[in-house]
Amino acid sequence: MKLLNKLLLYLVLPIVVLLGAVAAVGYQWVTRPLELPSAKVDLLVPAGATPATIARLLNQAGVQVNSGAFAMLARATELDKKLKAGGYQIARGDSVWDVLRRIALGEVTSRQITIVEGWTLRQVRAAILSNPDIKKSDPPWTDQEVPRLIQGGTALKSYPPEGLLFPDTYIFSIGTPDTEIVERAARTQQRVLEKAWQVRQEGLPLRSPYEALILASIVEKETGKASDRARIAGVFINRLRLNMPLQTDPTVIYGLGEAYTGRLRKVDLQTDTPWNTYTRNGLPPTPIASTGLASLQAALQPEKHDYLYFVAKGDGTSAFAKTLPEHNRNVAQYILGRKP
C-alpha cells in the first residue's frame, strides 16, 4: 500500500502541478490587460461573427490576441453562443475576458451625431460622411439620392430631398451604416410633421404638411430670437393670404447656391430662380433648410396679428410693421442707422 501511495504521488503530483501551472498561466492570460495601439480601440463585430472572426478583427485593429486561445475561452464559457453584433470600444486596462464578456452582453459603445437646425442637406450630408464612427456607403450617396435611401413607407419619399431629415441628436453604435442614420432622420421628420399638422391652426393658407415644412424652414432661417418665431410665421401667413410676395432673403440665398458670396446684392434680389420670393409669389418649391420642432409649430400655430413686414434690429430680435411707411422707418433706423 505504501508503495502504491508513493507511486501515485510521483505520478499524480506532477500532473496536478502541471495543471495548476497551466491554470495559472491561463488565468493570467485571461485577466492581464491587453496591449493597445492607442488609449481606445473601436471594434465593429459583424452579425454572425465567430470567436475566431472576432480574434482576427482584434488583431487587425492592433490588439494582439491568440486566436485559438480566444476561441477556446469562448467555447469553455459558452459565451460563443451569445456573441452580439455591434460597435464596441476597448480601453486600456481591459483584458481578453473583459472584451469577450462585453461582446456577449451586447454592451455596444454609443456615439452620437447632431443635425443642426437650419442646416441645408449639403451640410447634413457632409456631417454624416465625415463622422469616423459611421460606416460609409460605397460609392458615397448624393443629395439627390436621399429619397431612395428612405426604405420605409414615409410619404416624404415622393418629395425633393432638401429638408427631409429632422434636426436632432441621433445615438448610434460604431459602424452603423450612413443610410440608417438618413432613414432614422427621415422617419423622425415624418412623425414630427404629421403630429404638428394634426393640431394646426384652422384656416391656414397651407394645402399640405409639405407646404408647412417649406414655410417652417423659412421661419427657421429668419428667426434670430425664439420669442419672435410665431410672430414671424404670422407675417408670412398674412402675406400668403393676400398673395403678397414673401420677400425673404434666405430663400434668395438658397436659390443662388454656390453663387452666393456672403453678401446679398440688389441684382440677386432681381435675378429670378424658383426660390426667389421677391420675383415669385407664394412658397418656394422646397424647404430651404432642416426645420426644428419649434419653427414647425410656429408655422402651423402662428401668432394672429396684422403685421406684414419685419426687419432685423441687429440684436437678434425683429421690428414689425403693419404698413410699408412704418416698415421703411424701421429699415432706416435698424439697417441704415438713421435716427428716428
Written description of the protein model:
- There is one protein chain.
- The chain has helices at residues 2-31, 51-60, 67-76, 96-105, 121-130, 146-149, 178-198, 209-222, 229-242, 249-256, 266-270, 293-300, 324-334, and strands at residues 40-45, 86-91, 110-114, 134-135, 169-173, 176-177, 309-312, 318-321.
- With 340 residues, it is mainly alpha-helical.
- The strands form four sheets. It has a two-stranded antiparallel ribbon with strand order 1-2. The chain has a two-stranded antiparallel sheet with strand order 3-5.
- The radius of gyration is 31 Å and the shape is elongated.
Give a short synopsis of this structure.
It contains 13 helices and eight strands.
Observed structural traits:
13 helices; 46% helix; mainly alpha; single chain; Dna Ligase, domain 1; elongated; 340 residues; membrane; two-stranded antiparallel ribbon; lyase; cell wall biogenesis/degradation; 8 strands; 3 domains
Secondary structure elements and pairings:
Layout: H1 2-31, E1 40-45, H2 51-60, H3 67-76, E2 86-91, H4 96-105, E3 110-114, H5 121-130, E4 134-135, H6 146-149, E5 169-173, E6 176-177, H7 178-198, H8 209-222, H9 229-242, H10 249-256, H11 266-270, H12 293-300, E7 309-312, E8 318-321, H13 324-334
Parallel strand pairs: 4-6
Antiparallel strand pairs: 1-2, 3-5, 7-8
